[in-house]
Amino acid sequence: MSTLFAFLHHLCAFTLVSAVAIEFVLIRSELTLSSARRLQVTDLVLGIAAGALLLVGLLRVFLFEKGPDYYWHSHAFLTKFSLFVVMALVSIIPTLEFLSWGAELEAGQVPAISAKKRKLVTVVIHGELLAIVIILLCAAIMARGGWV
Hints:
By secondary structure, the chain is mainly α. It has one domain (2-143). The protein is 82% helix and 0% strand.
């Protein structure tokens, strides 16, 4: 069972990384009807992957791996977990923007996004990419039993 949950954890993580990378590419190009719809779908996939990653990760902590005492005393895990939660909260900014496009997309119109809002969404996506790099570093440190 531990192997299955490790697999699911990695599957969710890679799905999340892929979704953030797709958002990164799409938000940088000219917004079209097609790209706006793709951003909405990609953000939905990102949210599902993040929720599943959190659930599977917590199940691994509490049921399938070294136990909560080990993880709650690991600085690498606490950094990784805290960064994940902070970025999950901050990622609400692009999600709300993409969701606000619903009526325009339904009407077949390209959504209007101000330069300021686009910049904010782009900065958040860049932050998510940076957070992923730091989380991967923390995971590597944890795998080696370091930074306890």
